[in-house]
Amino acid sequence: MHTLLCMLITRMLGIIAALYLLGAGYAYVTQDAQIFPREQFEPYPITLDSSMTDVHLPTSDGATLHGLIVNVSPTVPKQVLVVVYPGNQHDGRRFAGFIGRDVLQSDAVVVGFQHRGYGQSTGTPSMDNLYADAVHIYDTYVSKFKPSHVYVLGYSLGSSIAAYVASQREASGLMLITPFTSMVDMAKAEYPYYPVGMLLKHHFPTQDILQDVQVPTAIVVAGKEELIPTSHAPRLADTVGSNLLFSRTLPHATHGDVLDQPEFPDVVKEFIKQAH
Q1: Considering the entire predicted model, what is its pTM?
Q2: Which of 95, 132, 142, 211 is 20 to 30 A from 111 (CA-CA)?
Q3: Domain 43-275: CATH architecture, name and number where available
């Protein structure tokens, strides 16, 4: 009887171990699709007008990024450049169009791109690639427009990307919209029993990056956030420290519709006014 019980326990432990390893393997194999859901991405239809320029920007590794520049005028040079970085299912061209046409109107040149591998942008997304692309976008249009002030805005996944740009280049202000501390922390909430730090390929360590950022920073939080734990924004605010302009909660916003809230345009304008 004792031998039979030991055999049953051993078999059960073997099954549990196999299921654990299977789950870890599934999380590892599917992480790219979860972080970069390109198959679910639908480019937002944009009707170009005279204030917009459709652009394709080549990268050093042979990819091409599809973007939109808003409010370019050959006769009225702009002193302000705003570069926006979208979320993992969000269209950067739509983001630029919204900020440039509906929020800031003619007060700034606004640039935004689809992430590589999304829409007409070619290449394969990864943390390193998106960080490098973001700096390349910044460098290209700062060189082109030579603005006196540059602001970087990042939404969701783009908040980590915008933070990285602000750690590598000069910026007049940084806005983090529904930001997270790191992808590792996000994955721990989803897979609490797995060693996600070892399994995850794309860490997006926003909080660590912000330790090297000395830029006036605003944080925007969704009051009905359903994706990012509520502890992330206060931790980021503490890391920003004295550079924090404000941390604003939009009470009726969810993660997916924070940009659509009626008060959001005024928050962006307040950010630029305070950071200027």
Answers
A1: 0.90
A2: 211
A3: 3-Layer(aba) Sandwich (3.40)
